[in-house]
Protein backbone atom coordinates (compact mmCIF):
# COMPACT_ATOMS: atom_id res chain seq x y z
CA UNK A 1 0.00 0.00 0.00
CA UNK A 2 1.39 3.34 -1.03
CA UNK A 3 -0.03 6.84 -0.67
CA UNK A 4 1.04 10.02 -2.39
CA UNK A 5 -0.28 13.04 -0.56
CA UNK A 6 -0.13 16.73 -1.13
CA UNK A 7 -0.80 19.21 1.61
CA UNK A 8 -1.35 22.90 1.08
CA UNK A 9 0.57 22.89 -2.19
CA UNK A 10 1.19 26.31 -3.60
CA UNK A 11 2.96 26.66 -6.91
CA UNK A 12 4.08 29.82 -8.62
CA UNK A 13 5.21 30.39 -12.17
CA UNK A 14 6.61 33.57 -13.60
CA UNK A 15 5.79 35.38 -10.36
CA UNK A 16 2.10 34.34 -10.42
CA UNK A 17 0.44 31.91 -8.07
CA UNK A 18 -0.99 29.18 -10.26
CA UNK A 19 -2.13 26.75 -7.54
CA UNK A 20 -2.87 27.69 -3.97
CA UNK A 21 -3.21 25.48 -0.88
CA UNK A 22 -4.12 22.34 -2.77
CA UNK A 23 -4.75 19.17 -0.74
CA UNK A 24 -5.25 15.67 -2.10
CA UNK A 25 -4.10 12.09 -1.70
CA UNK A 26 -3.87 9.13 -4.07
CA UNK A 27 -3.54 5.54 -2.89
CA UNK A 28 -2.24 2.37 -4.55
CA UNK A 29 -4.75 1.15 -7.08
CA UNK A 30 -6.30 4.59 -7.50
CA UNK A 31 -6.39 7.07 -10.32
CA UNK A 32 -6.82 10.77 -9.75
CA UNK A 33 -7.97 12.74 -12.77
CA UNK A 34 -7.01 16.39 -12.81
CA UNK A 35 -9.46 18.55 -14.75
CA UNK A 36 -9.97 22.25 -15.32
CA UNK A 37 -10.03 24.76 -18.14
CA UNK A 38 -7.00 25.65 -20.27
CA UNK A 39 -4.46 27.37 -18.06
CA UNK A 40 -6.00 26.11 -14.81
CA UNK A 41 -2.69 24.52 -13.83
CA UNK A 42 -3.04 20.83 -14.70
CA UNK A 43 0.36 20.53 -16.38
CA UNK A 44 1.89 22.71 -13.69
CA UNK A 45 0.63 20.34 -11.00
CA UNK A 46 1.92 17.23 -12.78
CA UNK A 47 5.32 18.82 -13.34
CA UNK A 48 5.52 19.76 -9.68
CA UNK A 49 4.55 16.22 -8.62
CA UNK A 50 7.32 14.93 -10.91
CA UNK A 51 9.81 17.16 -9.14
CA UNK A 52 10.33 19.33 -12.21
CA UNK A 53 8.98 22.51 -10.62
CA UNK A 54 9.65 23.78 -7.12
CA UNK A 55 6.87 24.19 -4.58
CA UNK A 56 6.38 27.74 -3.31
CA UNK A 57 4.98 26.17 -0.13
CA UNK A 58 3.28 23.05 1.12
CA UNK A 59 4.54 19.50 0.98
CA UNK A 60 4.42 16.30 -0.98
CA UNK A 61 4.84 13.02 0.82
CA UNK A 62 4.98 9.39 -0.09
CA UNK A 63 4.16 6.76 2.47
CA UNK A 64 5.58 4.41 3.44
CA UNK A 65 8.72 6.49 3.23
CA UNK A 66 11.47 5.10 1.06
CA UNK A 67 15.10 5.74 0.27
CA UNK A 68 14.03 6.48 -3.29
CA UNK A 69 12.71 9.97 -3.86
CA UNK A 70 9.24 10.51 -5.25
CA UNK A 71 10.85 11.42 -8.58
CA UNK A 72 12.75 8.12 -8.63
CA UNK A 73 9.50 6.22 -8.21
CA UNK A 74 7.68 8.18 -10.86
CA UNK A 75 7.13 8.08 -14.59
CA UNK A 76 6.15 11.45 -15.94
CA UNK A 77 4.84 11.58 -19.50
CA UNK A 78 4.39 15.21 -20.46
CA UNK A 79 2.42 16.34 -23.42
CA UNK A 80 5.49 17.02 -25.46
CA UNK A 81 6.42 13.47 -26.35
CA UNK A 82 10.14 13.87 -25.63
CA UNK A 83 11.33 11.46 -28.30
CA UNK A 84 14.63 11.97 -30.05
CA UNK A 85 13.71 12.34 -33.71
CA UNK A 86 16.89 10.83 -35.12
CA UNK A 87 16.63 7.65 -33.05
CA UNK A 88 14.21 4.89 -33.96
CA UNK A 89 11.23 4.22 -31.73
CA UNK A 90 13.02 1.18 -30.25
CA UNK A 91 16.26 3.13 -29.75
CA UNK A 92 14.31 5.85 -27.95
CA UNK A 93 13.00 3.27 -25.51
CA UNK A 94 16.46 1.71 -25.09
CA UNK A 95 17.87 5.14 -24.34
CA UNK A 96 15.12 5.82 -21.82
CA UNK A 97 15.49 2.42 -20.16
CA UNK A 98 19.24 2.99 -19.82
CA UNK A 99 18.60 6.34 -18.15
CA UNK A 100 16.36 4.68 -15.59
CA UNK A 101 17.66 1.55 -14.06
CA UNK A 102 16.79 -1.68 -15.69
CA UNK A 103 16.51 -4.82 -13.63
CA UNK A 104 13.23 -3.71 -12.15
CA UNK A 105 11.15 -6.00 -14.28
CA UNK A 106 10.45 -3.67 -17.17
CA UNK A 107 9.69 -4.95 -20.66
CA UNK A 108 12.20 -5.03 -23.49
CA UNK A 109 11.75 -2.06 -25.87
CA UNK A 110 10.25 -4.18 -28.66
CA UNK A 111 7.79 -5.82 -26.26
CA UNK A 112 6.79 -2.44 -24.86
CA UNK A 113 6.21 -1.10 -28.39
CA UNK A 114 4.25 -4.23 -29.22
CA UNK A 115 1.95 -3.56 -26.25
CA UNK A 116 1.07 -0.27 -27.90
CA UNK A 117 0.61 -1.74 -31.37
CA UNK A 118 3.87 -0.24 -32.67
CA UNK A 119 5.94 -3.31 -33.56
CA UNK A 120 5.76 -2.44 -37.28
CA UNK A 121 7.26 1.04 -36.77
CA UNK A 122 9.79 0.09 -34.07
CA UNK A 123 12.75 0.57 -36.42
CA UNK A 124 11.64 3.84 -37.99
CA UNK A 125 13.16 7.13 -36.86
CA UNK A 126 10.77 8.77 -34.40
CA UNK A 127 10.55 11.75 -36.77
CA UNK A 128 8.62 9.54 -39.24
CA UNK A 129 5.94 8.48 -36.77
CA UNK A 130 2.45 9.97 -36.92
CA UNK A 131 1.24 12.10 -34.01
CA UNK A 132 -0.68 9.20 -32.49
CA UNK A 133 2.26 6.81 -33.00
CA UNK A 134 4.60 9.28 -31.27
CA UNK A 135 2.19 9.54 -28.40
CA UNK A 136 2.04 5.76 -28.07
CA UNK A 137 5.84 5.44 -28.32
CA UNK A 138 6.15 7.96 -25.48
CA UNK A 139 3.59 6.03 -23.44
CA UNK A 140 5.51 2.79 -24.08
CA UNK A 141 8.16 4.27 -21.76
CA UNK A 142 5.80 3.38 -18.92
CA UNK A 143 6.48 -0.28 -19.58
CA UNK A 144 10.28 -0.38 -20.01
CA UNK A 145 10.94 0.35 -16.34
CA UNK A 146 8.55 -0.41 -13.53
CA UNK A 147 7.68 2.56 -11.40
CA UNK A 148 4.67 2.76 -9.10
CA UNK A 149 3.62 6.37 -9.72
CA UNK A 150 2.48 7.39 -13.18
CA UNK A 151 1.94 11.07 -13.93
CA UNK A 152 0.27 11.40 -17.31
CA UNK A 153 -0.40 14.74 -18.96
CA UNK A 154 -3.27 14.34 -21.45
CA UNK A 155 -2.44 10.69 -22.17
CA UNK A 156 -5.14 10.23 -24.82
CA UNK A 157 -4.34 13.32 -26.92
CA UNK A 158 -3.93 12.42 -30.62
CA UNK A 159 -5.02 8.82 -29.99
CA UNK A 160 -7.73 7.14 -32.04
CA UNK A 161 -10.41 5.04 -30.36
CA UNK A 162 -8.43 1.79 -30.52
CA UNK A 163 -5.30 3.41 -29.09
CA UNK A 164 -7.30 5.07 -26.33
CA UNK A 165 -8.59 1.64 -25.38
CA UNK A 166 -4.98 0.36 -25.36
CA UNK A 167 -3.71 3.02 -22.96
CA UNK A 168 -6.77 2.62 -20.75
CA UNK A 169 -6.10 -1.10 -20.48
CA UNK A 170 -2.42 -0.46 -19.69
CA UNK A 171 -3.47 2.01 -16.98
CA UNK A 172 -6.07 -0.44 -15.68
CA UNK A 173 -3.42 -3.18 -15.39
CA UNK A 174 -1.07 -0.80 -13.57
CA UNK A 175 -3.80 0.10 -11.07
CA UNK A 176 -4.71 -3.56 -10.60
CA UNK A 177 -1.04 -4.27 -9.81
CA UNK A 178 -1.11 -1.63 -7.05
CA UNK A 179 0.19 1.32 -9.05
CA UNK A 180 -1.02 4.84 -8.65
CA UNK A 181 -1.91 7.27 -11.43
CA UNK A 182 -2.46 11.01 -11.66
CA UNK A 183 -3.67 12.04 -15.13
CA UNK A 184 -4.74 15.36 -16.54
CA UNK A 185 -7.35 15.31 -19.23
CA UNK A 186 -10.05 17.17 -21.09
CA UNK A 187 -11.39 13.87 -22.42
CA UNK A 188 -13.45 11.34 -20.55
CA UNK A 189 -11.28 8.44 -19.42
CA UNK A 190 -13.42 5.40 -19.09
CA UNK A 191 -11.89 4.06 -15.89
CA UNK A 192 -12.90 4.45 -12.25
CA UNK A 193 -11.19 7.55 -10.91
CA UNK A 194 -11.53 10.39 -8.51
CA UNK A 195 -11.54 13.90 -9.90
CA UNK A 196 -9.55 16.89 -8.78
CA UNK A 197 -10.99 19.95 -10.45
CA UNK A 198 -8.69 22.93 -10.56
CA UNK A 199 -10.43 26.26 -10.35
CA UNK A 200 -9.70 29.60 -11.91
CA UNK A 201 -6.00 30.44 -12.02
CA UNK A 202 -4.96 33.35 -9.89
N1 LIG B 1 7.13 28.59 -17.78
C1 LIG B 1 6.10 29.35 -17.38
N2 LIG B 1 6.30 30.57 -16.87
C2 LIG B 1 5.26 31.32 -16.45
N3 LIG B 1 3.99 30.93 -16.50
C3 LIG B 1 3.75 29.73 -16.99
C4 LIG B 1 4.77 28.86 -17.45
N4 LIG B 1 4.21 27.74 -17.89
C5 LIG B 1 2.90 27.87 -17.70
N5 LIG B 1 2.61 29.05 -17.15
C6 LIG B 1 1.27 29.57 -16.80
O1 LIG B 1 0.74 28.72 -15.81
C7 LIG B 1 -0.68 28.61 -15.98
C8 LIG B 1 -1.05 27.14 -15.93
O2 LIG B 1 -0.55 26.49 -17.10
P1 LIG B 1 -0.70 24.93 -17.30
O3 LIG B 1 0.04 24.58 -18.53
O4 LIG B 1 -0.36 24.25 -16.04
O5 LIG B 1 -2.28 24.81 -17.55
P2 LIG B 1 -3.15 23.55 -17.99
O6 LIG B 1 -4.29 23.45 -17.04
O7 LIG B 1 -2.29 22.35 -18.13
O8 LIG B 1 -3.69 24.02 -19.40
P3 LIG B 1 -4.09 23.23 -20.76
O9 LIG B 1 -5.46 22.65 -20.52
O10 LIG B 1 -4.14 24.36 -21.75
O11 LIG B 1 -3.02 22.24 -21.05
C9 LIG B 1 -1.03 29.32 -17.27
O12 LIG B 1 -1.57 30.59 -16.96
C10 LIG B 1 0.30 29.46 -17.96
O13 LIG B 1 0.36 30.63 -18.75
TrEMBL record:
Q: Which GO terms describe its biological process?
A: cytochrome complex assembly
User: What InterPro entries does this protein's entry cite?
Assistant: AAA+_ATPase, ABC_transporter-like_ATP-bd, ABC_transporter-like_CS, ABC_transptr_haem_export_CcmA, P-loop_NTPase
An example molecular function term from Gene Ontology annotations? ATP binding
Signal sequence region: none
Q: Does the keyword Transport apply?
A: yes
What single Pfam family name could you report for this chain, choosing any that match? Answer: ABC_tran
User: What residue stretches are annotated with the ABC transporter domain?
Assistant: 2-201
UniProt keyword Manganese present:
no
Keyword entries, A-Z: ATP-binding, Cytochrome c-type biogenesis, Membrane, Nucleotide-binding, Translocase, Transport
Cross-referenced NCBIfam families: ccmA
As for family, the record states: Belongs to the ABC transporter superfamily.
Name by which UniProt lists this protein: Heme exporter protein CcmA
